[in-house]
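Most newcomers find our protein records easier to grasp once they have seen one. To make this concrete, we reproduce a full record directly below:

…
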Amino acid sequence: MLRRRFLFLILFTFGCAAQNPTADGIRYYGQARYDAAMTSFQEALKANPNDPNTEYNIAAVYHQSAKISLQSGQAAAAQQQYEQANQYYRLCLSKNPNHSEAYRGLAALYMDCRDAETAFQILIGWYTTYPASAEPKIELARLYQEYAQICMIQGRTEVAGECRTAAEKLLQKVLETEPSHFRALRALGYLMEQKGDKAGAVAAYQRSLQANPQQKDIESRIAVLKQ
């Protein structure tokens, strides 16, 4: 649920200044009318074939549709939709090689398909190409955190600990140069929660909230942790 909401916000950001087909697609996506959203985004792509954001939006619809198909037992349809999503994420990246949301979506797609190795290869490649950028570090840290949770479920606690250590190092690298980067601080707070460090989580969340006061969910999380 959280991932879908975040994806919609990204789509909304991209669509604010766009023409009607993109705005329509965003509205349909928010209403879970994915066929209509796809039609609108395809129209937007015809109008502006060089826009990587529209290709990202199309990939996002295919990705969401694949997850729905998989949940309803339509494995063949899901596989085809995952392949289409993969194609459009990569088309987006071919036009904008530093498109954060496309990298995030592509890595999530491989995790959905239980291919963690490829997901890591993609984000490590991005990080290697843009070593000074904060976004690859944050997304790679998020992937380490997600994989740590999987490892905990599987009883691989040592690997989970190594992943969390790697995630923390990446986030600290961001904060060394950008101490008020709210997304890095938010991710650090979540990591501290995973480690059972409530005080550390609250401290990181509070710094994130100071940097970006619009995070109402973080306010709620801080209140819960302080109880």
Q: What stands out?
A: The two ends are 25 Å apart (CA to CA). The chain has two domains: 1-114, 120-227. Residues 1-18 have pLDDT under 50 and may be disordered. DSSP finds twelve helices and no strands in the chain.
